[in-house]
Design brief:
CATH class: Alpha Beta
Structural class: alpha/beta
Largest sheet: 5 strands, parallel
Distance between the termini: 24 Å
CATH superfamily: Response regulator
Strand order of the largest sheet: 2-1-3-4-5
CATH topology: Rossmann fold
Shape: globular
Length: 140
């Protein structure tokens, strides 16, 4: 569970509004502040305007928007959210897709079908915990 001092922020990018609403409820219940975006350009605009999430969850296939790959590539190219965990959350999980998201700088590539929303919150909690622990070790 995230610390009570400051709510961790999660940016969610997906075109599936109902799914995002469900994820939002679960993440908020888990102590997160959630921002939802339905297009990559809207998410990128928020990041360019100073929004700094702890975690970015993004889909790969987003109709009527640039793809999750393009989104991730732009994050790296424009040096946006350098300290955010970047997690592809997609129905696309072949080795090629996973390799591509890793090459573009994603910290993880998770299959939507493998997680119910509350489990996703637990997975993200653990990823943040590991990252924080790793950061503290580097400071010593």
């Amino acid at each position: 569970m995230p610390s009570a001092e400051r709510k961790p922020k999660v940016l969610m990018l997906d075109d599936e509004k109902l799914l995002l609403d469900i994820y939002k409820q679960k993440f908020e219940k888990g102590g997160y502040e959630v921002s939802m975006f339905y297009t990559a350009d809207d998410a990128l605009n928020a990041l360019r305007n100073g929004y700094e999430p702890d975690v970015i969850l993004f889909d790969i296939t987003i109709p009527n928007s640039r793809s999750g790959y393009d989104f991730l590539e732009t994050l790296q190219k424009d040096k946006l959210s350098k300290h955010s965990l970047k997690v592809a959350l997609s129905n696309e999980g072949q080795d090629g897709e996973r390799a591509r998201t890793a090459e573009l700088g994603a910290d993880a590539h998770l299959l939507k079908a493998n997680f119910i929303p509350s489990e996703l919150v637990t997975v993200v909690d653990e990823m943040l915990r590991k990252r924080k622990k790793s950061w503290w070790k580097k400071q010593r």
